[in-house]
Amino acid sequence: METIVHEGWALESRVPSLVENLEKLSTRAKKLGCPAITWEVTDETKRSEERDDITGLVVRVSYYRLVKVSGAAPVYNGWHLVAVIDHIKEDGTNLFRVVPGEELPEHYRKTPQHCDHCGHSRYRKTTIVVRHEDGTYKQLGSACVKDFLGHPKPESFLWQAEWPSIFEGMFNEGGGHREWEGYDLKTFMTVTAAVVREFGWLSRGKANESGGYATADIVNGNVADLIGGRKMDVTLLPEDEVMADKTINFINSMPQDNLSDYEYNLKASFELNMVIPRYEGIVASGLNYFMRKNDLLEKKEWKNSVHVGTVGDKITVKVKVLNIYWFETQFGSCGVHKFLDNNGNIFIWKTGHHGLVPDDEIVLKGTIKEHNEYKEKKQTVLTRCKVLEKE
Ligand SMILES: [Zn+2]
Fold first, then answer.
1. In terms of domains, do 384 and 329 share one?
2. What is d(CA 253, CA 266) in angstroms, rounded to the nearest whole number?
3. From ligand 1's centre to the CA of 364, what distance in Å?
C-alpha cells in the first residue's frame, strides 16, 4: 500500500466543511472496500492581508489552517490507479484527474479513447490509467478495470481521483482567485470611529424603527468604498485610529467570567481578529460599548441641559470637553467644541485649534452669542472665548 499525503492551507472558515467532505469521502471509501482516509487539522495557521494602495491600510484579511490528508491507494496484483481521463472531444481533447502523489505520463494528456487490455477503441466517456509496481502504465476502459484493480465497480476508485477537485475548492493554493474572509478588524474599527464621530451611533434596531442608516451599514459602505478605491463619506483622523486601538484592547482584555450574552458574543466576535459580514453589527457596536463603559457617550442627564445666562453676557464656566467636530472653511479648520458643565448644561464654541481633546477639564471665559437647540437639547453658544485653566 502506498500512502498518499496531501497537505494544504484551507481557509479557516472552510475547515468545517472540508472535514465534513472528508468524512463523507471516508464513509464512501469504506463502503466500497477502499482503504480508509485520515486527516489532521493542524495548529498551524497563517494570515494574509490585502492593503489599500493609497492609504496603506490593511483592508481585507484571511486566515488559513494547514490540513493534512492521507490515504492509501488500493493495489491489486501490483496494479494501482493513477488517473481518470475524461474524453471530452473525439480529437483527443481530454480532461484528467491525477491521484495526488502520482504522475501521469504526458502523452496521456492527448490520448484517444482506447483500452490497452482488450484493444477496443469504441467511444468511451472515461478511461482509467493504472500503473504496475514495475513501472508499466496501462490505459483501460471501464469494463476491463476490474481485471487490474480487482473491483467490479471501477467508479469505486474515482474517489481517489476526486481528491484534487475536492481540495481545489477547499484549499486556496495554486493560483485561482483569492478569497477574502473578512475586513481587517483595526481598519473596520477605525472607520467605525470616524462614522460615529461624524454621524453619531445608531444601532440596527433603532435604525429599523426610525428609518435611518445603522452605523454598521454606513461603516460597511465606507469600507467597501475604501477597497474599491472610491472616496469615503468620512475622513479618517489619527484620533479614530486611537479610538479603534483603545476599543480593541478594551474588549480583548475583558475577563471571560460574568459576561452578559451580548458581552460574550462581542468578545468572541473580536477574537476572530477580522470582521465577517454576519458579525458587522456586533463588532461595530463594540465602539459604542467601549464609549459607554468609559463615560464617553452622551449621557441621559444632558437631555435636561438648559440655556445659561443671557445673550450678550460675559460668563466664566468650568466645563469638560465632550467632543470636537472638525470641518473645513475658507479660513481653515473649524472645530465645533462641545462642553458640559457640572449641571449637565451644554456649551458650544466654534473655533480653531486650541489643543483641546475630549475629556479635558477647563475653565472657559466667553460671551454668550446665542441660545439654540440641537437634537432637542438646549445649548448655550459662546464666542470670543479664552481658556483660563486647563487641568
Ligand atoms: Zn478493455
1. yes
2. 12
3. 97
